[in-house]
Design brief:
The strands form two sheets. Strands 2-1-3-10-4 form a five-stranded mixed β-sheet. The chain has a five-stranded mixed β-sheet with strand order 7-6-8-5-9, sandwiched between helices. 48% of the residues lie in helices and 21% in strands. It is of the alpha/beta class. The protein has two domains: 186 residues, D-Maltodextrin-Binding Protein, domain 2, CATH 3.40.190; 92 residues, Periplasmic binding protein-like II (D-Maltodextrin-Binding Protein, domain 2, 3-Layer(aba) Sandwich). It is globular and about 60 Å long.
Length: 293
C-alpha cells in the first residue's frame, strides 16, 4: 500500500451552497477519523471551483456537470456522488414577470455562477419550445435582473431565498421539472471529479477523501431532521422546507442519473455548446486500467 505520509497535499473544493450539504456536512469529521493530515478544503461558487480544478489549484471538487463535460479527459469521476434531481430541484429556478410565451421572444437574465443551468435553459428552450430568448449574464439579484429582462434564472441559495418571496405577479418555474417534462429524464447538476495527476500522485489520499465524502453523505442522509435544523438556522426558512429540499435532491450517481446526464451532454454537443462528445471515466476503475496497460 502507498505510504500516505509521503504523498503530496490534496486540496478539495466545496461548493458553498446548501444543496451540497449532505455530502460535505460531516466530511471533515469523517476525514479526521481516518488520520489524514495532507488535505485542505477550499470553498467557492461553482464557477470558481470549475476554474480552480481546470487550473490545477485544487485536486478534487464538486463541479458543474457542464464544466466536467468541457474537460472530461483531464478528470475522473468519483462514483456514487452527485447533486441530481428527478422532476424537481427547488434551487435552479426561472422567475418570469411575463408569460413564458412572451419571454421566449424577449430577454432572460441568467446567473454568472454556473454554466450547467444556463445551458440547461438553452437546451430546454430550444428543444422544447423551438426558440431561445436573448440571455444576458448578471449577478444573482432578482430585482435587478427583472428590471432588465423578462425573466431571471437563479441557482443555489439565491434561488431558494428568492423563491420564498418572489414578488407579486412572478411565475416560478423549476428548471429540472421543465427538463423532466420534456425528456422524461432526471438531471445531474454537479459531479465529483478528481484530476488525473492527483489520482496518480496521491492514490491513498484520494481514496481516503472519497471514503470520507461517502461516509459524510451516509451520516447526513441518516439524519435529515438534524441537517434541516442546521440549514434553517443558517439560511432561514422553516425546518419543514429544508427537510423536503434535502429529501427531494438525489446524491447518488447511478444508472438513472448517468442516463439523464448523458442525454444532456448529447444535446449540448448537437447544439454546439460542447466541442466534443463526452466520454466519462470513473475512478478508480480507469486508474486501475491505466496501471494494467
Amino acid at each position: 500500500m502507498t505510504d500516505m505520509a509521503a504523498e503530496r497535499e490534496i486540496t478539495v473544493g466545496r461548493i458553498d451552497y446548501a444543496n451540497i450539504w449532505p455530502i460535505f456536512d460531516r466530511f471533515e469529521e469523517c476525514l479526521a477519523e481516518t488520520g489524514v493530515r495532507n488535505v485542505r478544503v477550499a470553498k467557492g461558487v461553482p464557477a470558481t471551483l470549475n476554474r480552480a480544478l481546470s487550473e490545477g489549484t485544487i485536486d478534487i471538487a464538486a463541479i458543474s456537470s457542464f464544466a466536467y463535460g468541457q474537460r472530461f479527459d483531464e478528470y475522473e469521476l468519483l462514483p456514487e456522488l452527485s447533486v441530481s434531481a428527478d422532476g424537481e430541484v427547488m434551487s435552479v429556478l426561472l422567475f418570469l414577470k411575463r408569460p413564458l410565451e412572451e419571454a421566449l421572444r424577449g430577454r432572460i437574465a441568467v446567473t454568472t455562477a454556473s454554466a450547467t443551468s444556463v445551458n440547461l435553459l438553452r437546451i430546454v428552450m430550444q428543444g422544447r419550445y423551438g426558440r431561445c430568448p436573448e440571455l444576458i449574464a448578471m449577478e444573482p439579484d432578482l430585482e435587478a435582473m427583472l428590471e432588465r429582462a423578462d425573466g431571471a434564472l437563479l441557482i443555489g441559495d439565491p434561488a431558494i431565498r428568492a423563491s420564498w418571496r418572489p414578488g407579486p405577479g412572478i411565475e416560478v418555474l423549476d428548471a429540472a421539472r421543465m427538463w423532466k417534462e420534456w425528456t422524461g429524464l432526471g438531471m445531474t447538476f454537479a459531479v465529483f471529479a478528481v484530476r488525473r495527476e492527483a489520482a496518480r500522485e496521491a492514490p491513498e489520499t484520494v481514496r481516503r477523501v472519497y471514503e470520507a465524502l461517502a461516509e459524510s453523505k451516509r451520516r447526513a442522509l441518516a439524519d435529515i431532521e438534524g441537517l434541516s435544523r442546521k440549514a434553517a438556522g443558517r439560511f432561514g426558512g422553516g425546518e419543514d422546507y429544508w427537510e423536503r429540499y434535502f429529501r427531494t435532491l438525489r446524491y447518488g450517481f447511478g444508472p438513472q442519473e448517468q442516463e439523464g446526464l448523458s442525454y444532456y451532454y448529447d444535446c449540448a454537443f448537437r447544439m454546439g455548446l460542447l466541442e466534443r462528445r463526452v466520454a466519462p471515466a470513473t475512478w478508480p476503475d480507469h486508474a486501475a486500467a491505466r496501471v494494467n496497460e
